[in-house]
Design brief:
The protein has helices at residues 6-11, 13-23, 29-32, 73-85, 100-107, 134-145, 163-166, 168-179, 193-201, 223-235, 254-266, 280-296, and strands at 40-42, 49-51, 53-56, 90-92, 116-122, 150-158, 183-190, 207-211, 239-243, 272-275. It is of the alpha/beta class. The protein has one domain (38-296): NADP-dependent oxidoreductase domain (TIM Barrel, Alpha-Beta Barrel). Helix 2 (13-23) packs parallel to helix 12 (280-296). The longest helix is centred in the last third of the chain and has 17 residues, at 280-296. The two termini are 25 Å apart.
Length: 297
Amino acid sequence: MGKINRREFIRTGIAGAVGLSVGAGLLTTGCLEGGVKVDRVALGNTGLTVSRIAMGTGTMGRNKSSHQTQLGTEAFVKLAHHAYDRGIRFYEMAEMYGSHPYVRQAMKTLPREKVTLLTKFWSHPEPSLQTESTQQILDRLRKEAGTDYFDIVLLHCIMHGNWDETHQKHIEGLAKAKQDGIVKAVGLSCHNWDAMVTAVDHPWVDVILARINPFQTLMDGTPEAVSELLGRARANGKGILGMKIFGEGQNVSDDERERSLKFAVTQSNIHCMTLGLESEAQMDDAIERVMRLARLG
């Protein structure tokens, strides 16, 4: 199958996704009605057990907006509920995406104790530009998301290796939030090789969110090098969450989706992955592929 871009992939809808998947021998009518469901995995030594797939809410996320929030509240909630029904009990948010109020609406009819909520917030490396304390940020985001606590909170988009020095204010604040029961696990989303290197052995880090795919799209090293580094982190008990699995929409042909998910499941050293899916068809297709690959692996 030829390469298609993100816009064409989004336009496929239910019919297109069924056509792609049936052609690869992946979908049946029963699957569309909710057959196979996403399984759950232990997230390193965090003590958390999460669904293998998280519903990402930040495709092209910036300025408090993303492709998921642009669906509108009703469609977002419907997609979040579909995710839950298919076994996805893990929702990834960020202050930058503006997705907390949307997740709040979805959570009104979902059991909080069965769901993992992850959020990320921007931590400016220049302390003098920090206008809010960690506690103030967490209080605001908890209110926006309608939850008393977050399962995972990450420092967002860390791009340098000495983050443990420049972000000390929030490192200490999140450590206290863990002690107070407001947060269960902490860490960072890495957008830089040196940032990951520091995180691998850092005792404060519970969870690393890393960019990983077989095409080296928007990554911080070769797939082999990143996978090896994440393997070291995993051996240290870190929970590893993969992102940019489809290269933020740059690798979404049928063959590329298959290769990306096979790499994520069998070679990447991640425990689970966040996928920025924008329709039930995309979600069903990804779930069928991931669970087939997990069974084979």
